[in-house]
Amino acid sequence: MKELWTEKYRPKQVGDYVWRDGDQKSQVETWIKAGSIPHVLLSGSPGVGKTTLAKVLINELDLEPADVMEINASRERGIDIIKNKITNFAGTMPFGRFKIVLMDEADYLTPEAQAVMRGVMETYADNCRFMLTCNYPNKIIPALHSRCQGFHVDKIDHTEFTARCATILVTENVDFELDTLDSFVTAAYPDLRKCINNLQMASVEGKLMAPREASGSTADYRLKMVDLFKAGQVTAARKVACANVRPDEMEEMFRWMYDNLQLWSKTEEGQDKAIVVIRNGLVNHALVADPEINLSATLVELATIG
Q: What is the pLDDT of residue 289?
């Protein structure tokens, strides 16, 4: 089986990580020099590098493998995981200087589980530090916010995002057309992890296949949307979106529209208009009874900006 590109090209050292904030880089370097960290809460959009940064820290701190526990809270989210698994781990002496619990997607934890975890974080602070990642920090209870140093991981620049994807394709000896790469980038941005996964699945015999030629598992609805918009098939693109976006994904879809303003216009004036349209659509999302109609109307208006 081929090695996953997302793991193969995941940064492992501070120098390899793409920093958006120089102050954050300095803070991380200070922790590494001191050989210790506080409890940390890493927030940001999916795929922007929260877990990667956490693993960079773990790697640079040179901890014993047995002193690190990784948990995905989207799968293990109840009180039992805190009371049993985490408490048992944190309550024993570390092999090295201290232990770390890396909890991905901590915003999936129930409020009850979060309430129990705050006590665990305090009780075992001398032996164990917690690193939490989340997409929605507002879903983390205030008591955990107050116990953690917050790090918001911002999205990388669209151009740099594209360059990183292109570098991976070149390194893997995959031929590609720039317009094809742009379609994959636009469909996934700012989720670099998703984009890299899609590129790997669409790379066949040393060539990056266009979204319309890729397998059904690769060509997700955003890829199809982007391809149709580029071809001027606005109605078809709108139908693809409305047929595939779940009600709980509506806000994420509006955020994706905002993150990819260049899809709606290449000019600054046009992108300013797009921002207004998207903002109005998001406001209406909370007011209109049928979210599909609101999404459709927003996409129609965006397509007329040019």
A: 66
How far is residue 216's CA from residue 42's CA, in Å, rounded to a whole number? Answer: 33
191: CATH: 1.10.8.60
For residue 75, give the 3-state DSSP assignment: coil
78 within 8 A of 66, measured Cβ to Cβ: no
Domain count, the chain: 3
Look up the domain containing 73 and give its range. 5-152
SS3 category, 156:
coil
Place of tokens 């048992």: 88
Nearest CA-CA partner of 77 in 121, 108, 36? 108
Residues 127 and 168 in one domain: no
Q: pTM for the complete prediction?
A: 0.83
Strands of the sheet containing 149-152, edge to edge, are 68-72, 99-104, 128-134, 40-43, 149-152
Q: Are 184 and 202 in contact (CB under 8 A)?
A: yes
Task: Check: CB of residue 224 under 8 Å from CB of residue 147.
Answer: no
pLDDT in tens, 220-255: 788 888 988 888 888 888 888 888 888 888 888 999
